[in-house]
Design goal:
Shape: rod-shaped
Order of helices and strands: HHEHHEHE
Largest sheet: 3 strands, antiparallel
Helix content: 55-70%
Distance between the termini: 36 Å
Structural class: mainly alpha
């Protein structure tokens, strides 16, 4: 399953449990209060674990891109025909500045990372 979807599902379950916990507190139902507090704790731990894994993977990808020996901004002409560019340059990775990896690299324009100069 997609990590983003899994996080969203967990957050939805967390929200539902929080609402049920509030209702149980207003009724004074002690067994339900303890059940929902335990479930909220486990869901919170799962969400934080998944977010940490996403952050770890993003940093790992960012470091691998930064370790590539050559990078430069792509011209408008190259951006118009990315398929041709990717076929001509083996191992080229194109990063857009509005993606997560692009934001973590603090890019201003579409940038290509490659093992050799292109």
């Amino acid at each position: 399953m997609n990590p983003n979807k899994e996080i969203q599902q967990l957050k939805n379950r967390l929200d539902t449990c929080q609402r049920k916990l509030d209702a149980a507190k207003s009724r004074g139902d002690q067994p339900m209060i303890s059940k929902f507090t335990d479930e909220i704790d486990t869901l919170t731990k799962k969400v934080s674990r998944l977010k940490h894994k996403q952050e770890y993977d993003l940093n790992k990808e960012r470091k691998s891109l930064l370790d590539m020996p050559f990078s430069r901004e792509l011209t408008k002409k190259e951006q118009a025909d990315l398929g041709k560019l990717k076929k001509s340059v083996k191992g080229l990775v194109v990063v857009h500045p509005l993606t997560k990896i692009g934001k973590s690299l603090r890019l201003d324009a579409m940038t290509g990372f490659a093992p050799k100069e292109f």
